[in-house]
Design a protein that fits this description.
By secondary structure, the protein is an alpha+beta fold. The protein has 2 domains: 2-56, Roll (Ubiquitin-like (UB roll)), CATH 3.10.20.80; 78-160, Translation Initiation Factor IF3. Helices cover 31% and strands 25% of the residues. It has helices at 24-33, 55-72, 89-104, 123-136; strands at residues 9-13, 19-23, 37-42, 49-53, 78-83, 108-114, 141-143, 148-150, 153-160. Strands 5, 6, 7, 8 and 9 form a 5-stranded mixed beta sheet that branches. Strand 5 (78-83), helix 3 (89-104) and strand 6 (108-114) form a beta-alpha-beta unit. It is rod-shaped. Residues 164-171 have low confidence and may be disordered.
Length: 190
């Protein structure tokens, strides 16, 4: 901004719409005569582009644009659900419903089966549970690979599936006074 611009000359854009290539010192002086600041908006251009405007207003507009962009973005999170190898059916269904909600919101789900004590001898039960979980949620999320063991835990990661295309729209019913298509009022000739 102003004297901090290091380029020898700039393409200066003024509020009245005029665009001129000027030495930086001349462009700064002209902007200050208008009561504005000279702000570098495209430093990589040849020559760099500088605009005469109010610096405070420019900062305010930039913050507002960033805030709007941030508001519209959705950060994908990884939601973790923990199971044990002998998790009861009700608990399983309860956690499955949570996973469906998470996947519909666009988040990823990590299902983890924890093995404690002697349960580690039955890792096959944990793998079966995770495979069943992935199959039950296939409509909502796709499993990223097979269940894997890491230490005393087995886990599988599910990513949300894009919503399927809506079913084909039904044709509107035909008026009753028209004959059904394919039939004619004329007698058939043989």
């Amino acid at each position: 901004m102003n004297e901090a611009i290091r380029a020898r000359e700039v393409r200066a854009v003024f509020p009245d719409g005029s665009v001129e290539i000027l030495p930086t010192s001349v462009a700064v002086r002209r902007a200050q005569e208008l009561g504005l600041d000279l702000i570098l908006v495209a430093p990589t251009a040849e020559p760099p582009v500088a605009k005469a405007m109010d610096y405070g207003q420019w900062q305010y507009e930039n913050k507002k644009k960033q805030h709007e962009a941030k508001k519209k973005q959705h950060v994908i999170q990884v939601k973790e659900l923990k199971f044990r190898p002998n998790t009861d059916d009700h608990d399983y269904e309860f956690k499955k419903n949570h996973a469906i909600r998470f996947l519909k919101e666009g988040n990823r789900v990590k299902a983890v089966v924890q093995f404690r004590g002697r349960e580690i001898a039955h890792t096959d039960l944990g793998r079966k549970l995770l495979m069943r979980f992935a199959e039950d949620l296939a409509q909502y999320g796709a499993a990223e690979g097979q269940p894997r063991m890491e230490g005393r835990n087995a886990h599988v990661l599910l990513s949300p599936v894009k919503a399927a295309a809506p079913a084909a729209k039904e044709k509107p019913p035909k008026p009753k006074n028209e004959p059904p298509s394919g039939s004619s009022t004329a007698p058939a000739q043989s």
